[in-house]
Amino acid sequence: MKDLIPNDVVELSKTEIIKSINKAENTESLEILKAVKAVGTKKKTMRNKVRKTLSTLSEDGKSLAKLHEIELVMNCLKVNKLIDDMKSLKSCIEWCFNDLVKDEKHPFFVKENRQSMKNVEINTMQPCVMSPMLKPKVKSKAEIVEDISDIDLKINLTADNDNKFQSKNKIFFESHCELDENNELVINDETFNATMELFKAFQNEIRKARLNAIKVKAK
Known about the structure:
globular
C-alpha cells in the first residue's frame, strides 16, 4: 500500500485508492469489492473470491502473491467509511485462512501462517494492512480451542430498546448463525462452546484481578 500513501505521510489518499482499484491490473480487487457490498445476498460469492485470491502463491510457492489485492479492497472500503463492510471482509479473510488450513489440496497453509487485517476502523486514515495472526493465549482443555481463529471477539454489551443484543452485534450473530450449502452451521457446536469457554475464562480472570486490587488496597 506504500504507493498509495502520498509523500511520507502515513495516510491514505481516497482519490488514489479509487483510481487504483479501477485499473486493469486490479480486476480481482474490484470483483471482491462488489462481492463485499453484496454480502447480504452473496456471502458465498465473497468467500469464494477472497479464498481464490488468498490462495494464490508466488512462483516459488513460498509466499502469498496477492495480499495487495485484499488490502486495496479494505482500504477502498475504509476511505468510503463503510465500517460494516470492512468488518465483514475482515471476518471473511479469517474464515478463508482457516478453511485453507483444513484443505489438504493447499499444503502451504498451516495455522502459523494465517493472517488477518489490522487498522480496521474509520476514525483514522492509517492504511489497513495484512499482518500475522497472533497465536491463542488462552486454551481450554479441549483441543478444539486450538482451532478457533484468532479473531478479536468484539462484543457490544449495549442492549437495544427491547433489551436484546443482536442488533448491536450484527456481524457476530450472522457469523454464528450462518448455514453452509448442506444447511449445517458453519461454526459447529464444538467451536461455539469453546468460544463460550473463552468468555468464562475472561470472567474468571477479571474477578481474580478485582480481588487482587482489593487485597493490594488493604495493605
